[in-house]
Amino acid sequence: MPKITTLAERPEYLERMYDFADAWPAFMHNDPIGNTFMGQVPAHFPDQCVIATENGELVAHGRSIPFVFPDESRTELPAGGWDRVLQWGFYDLRTGRTPNVSSALEILIRPSHLGRGLSHELLAAMRDAVRAKGHSALYAPVRPNGKTDPHQPMTEYVQQRRPDGLPVDPWLRVHVRSGGEVVQVAPRSMVIAGTLEEWRRWTGLPFDTSGDVVVPQALVPVHADVTHNHAVYVEPNVWVRHDL
User: Which of 53, 160, 171, 195 is 20 to 30 A distant from 10 in Cα terms?
Assistant: First the structure.
């Protein structure tokens, strides 16, 4: 069984946090906010990043970021979801504010280790790490990658339940089983824009007509504009709250 610790306990794995980042679809690596901040998270917050190793091999990891919430200007969870919480976290770090909550950012499992319950264990370890810092809640802008119909509104998808009452989406189900509560949709959690040529390179699709383009593994369609030579993907995620 993999050994799960914080990155602070095993800093030698810091440089290996991208060992299997290609588990994400290629276009997802082109969010400018994520590219600016995500790589800094393990270095600044190793005590609340978690790793799973087996025979010395990194097989899964999770990242989270502390931030202040709520305050006079942050009265609601942001519609900007994943992008926005990254900005909040690094703003608070830069200005010396004392965080009281954290947000999960990612739990990534090597494909060879999927289906072994690691997602539940990593989430539990992340909750423990955040609780140890005295934070009152762990939030998560969850990417419900079980959503297969890009035209279905996320607000409708999150309402779907199995006969046992749990969400149909596997990732939302992991969070709810762990005590999380689905709070609301973050309608523009991640924004990825590029030229049509960039989108062709990222997806292998022609991107030669204006309108909605269905891209494999995208949760909603990508909006293409041939006249102005760009396409934009605005991904909705789902805010989940874990009270600690």
Answer: 171
Res 17: pLDDT = 86
Phi/psi region, residue 154 (left: phi>0; alpha: psi -120 to 50; beta: rest), is alpha
* CB-CB contact of 111 with 80 (8 Å): no
Determine how β-strand 230-243 pairs with β-strand 222-225.
antiparallel
- What pLDDT sits at residue 32? 98
Q: What is the pLDDT of residue 153?
A: 98
Query: Would you list the DSSP string of the chain?
Result: --EEEETTT-GGGGGGTTTTGGGS-GGGGG-HHHHHHGGGHHHH-GGG-EEEEETTEEEEEEEEEEE--S-SS--S--TTHHHHHHHHHHHHHHHT----EEEEEEEEE-GGGTTSSHHHHHHHHHHHHHHHTT-SEEEEEE--TT---TTS-HHHHTT-B-TTSSBSSHHHHHHHHTT-EEEEEEEEEEEEEE-HHHHHHHH-----SSEEE--TT-SSPEEEETTTTEEEEEEEEEEEEEE-
Q: Which residues of the chain have pLDDT under 70?
A: none
Burial class (CB in 10 A: 0-12, 13-18, 19+), 32: exposed
Sole residue written with tokens 């994520």: 34
Tokens 């494999």, located at residue? 216
Question: pTM higher than 0.90, yes or no?
Answer: yes
What is the CATH number assigned to the segment(s) 3-188+237-243? 3.40.630.30
